[in-house]
Amino acid sequence: MIEKLPRSEGNSIGYEATDELSEDEYAEILADVEAAIDEYGSAKLLLDLSGVSDSYAEFDAYEEDFGFYLRHGEDMDCYAVVGDDSVLEWGTELSDRVTETDIEFFDAEDLDDAWEYVEEQ
């Protein structure tokens, strides 16, 4: 299940996932980001995955994510990933190296720092 975070404003968008993201939920997040890109020219995303154990998304959601970055990678100012899983941290660091988007990982207890990062980019 996903919930849009109340601190979301303008092109700074935050979501919290409390369970593995379905393809439809991930598509909902990406549609919100795409709408921000259309309105503001760019978007900033915070995704709090600290309540998710194991894999954070269905396999089809990964395909959706890849296609989104092919279309809009240059339109993303930044992407903050919040979690408490070392594999997620590693994946975030790898994604940062292979995409044009500035992607940072934050530990679960550093959610406020992640928001500051997103809002200041």
UniProtKB/TrEMBL annotation:
<dbReference type="InterPro" id="IPR036513">
    <property type="entry name" value="STAS_dom_sf"/>
</dbReference>
<protein>
    <recommendedName>
        <fullName>STAS/SEC14 domain-containing protein</fullName>
    </recommendedName>
</protein>
<dbReference type="Pfam" id="PF11964">
    <property type="entry name" value="SpoIIAA-like"/>
</dbReference>
<dbReference type="InterPro" id="IPR038396">
    <property type="entry name" value="SpoIIAA-like_sf"/>
</dbReference>
<dbReference type="InterPro" id="IPR021866">
    <property type="entry name" value="SpoIIAA-like"/>
</dbReference>
